[in-house]
Each structure stands twice: as C-alpha cells, then as structure tokens.
Amino acid sequence: ISSLFSSTASDENQSKLDDLDISTIDWLVKELRNSENHLNSLSLENGRLTATVDDLKQKVTERTSIAKSSEGTADKLTDLSNQLDKISLENDLAVMELQNLL
Q1: How far apart are CA 54 and CA 49, in angstroms?
Q2: pLDDT tens digits along 21-43
Q3: Distance between CA 49 and CA 3 in Å, rounded?
Q4: What is the 3-state secondary structure of the chain?
Q5: Which of 5, 10, 74, 102 has the fewest CB atoms lying closer than 10 Å?
Q6: 1 vs 83: CA distance, rounded Å
C-alpha cells in the first residue's frame, strides 16, 4: 500500500513538473538566488549588529565599573568634607576662646 501511495505521489509530482515551462523554472531559480543573496546580506548585517551589541555591552560594563568606583570616591569626599566642617567648627571655637582670653 505504501509503495502504491508513494508511486501515486511521485506521479503527481512528475505531472506538476511537466506543467512547468522553462521560463517558470528560470524565474524560480532567479528568485531562489535572490533569496539566497538576501539571506547572505542579512547574515552579514546580523554579524555587524552582533559585534555592535558586544561592543555596547563592553562599554556598559566599563561604565558600570567606573560608576561603582565613583560611588566610593564620592563617599570618601563626603567624609572628608564632613571632617573639614568639624575641624572648621573646632577652629572657630578655639578662636572664640582665645578672643575671650584676650
């Protein structure tokens, strides 16, 4: 039964092929080549976009690292500023005490 079915399918395919003329086959080949060229172009563009994405990921990683180290620097600067404010207040108090002594 399966051989009869495959034979019938094969006969139908052969009949369809017989109905195709040379110009139709030429057109199909041309379209296939155009599709292949388009696919190759898309593949190249995909490669370029992948490289761009990888480059952007690297830049984000670098900038994230810089931002994290900047946070530490900002905290240190804030601490130093607070220490300077404290020293300035202590100096002001010392000057006031000296003025009171004079």
Answers
A1: 9
A2: 788 888 889 999 999 999 999 99
A3: 50
A4: CHHHHHHHHHHHHHHHHHHCCHHHHHHHHHHHHHHHHHHHHHHHHHHHHHHHHHHHHHHHHHHHHHHHHHHHHHHHHHHHHHHHHHHHHHHHHHHHHHHHHC
A5: 102
A6: 95
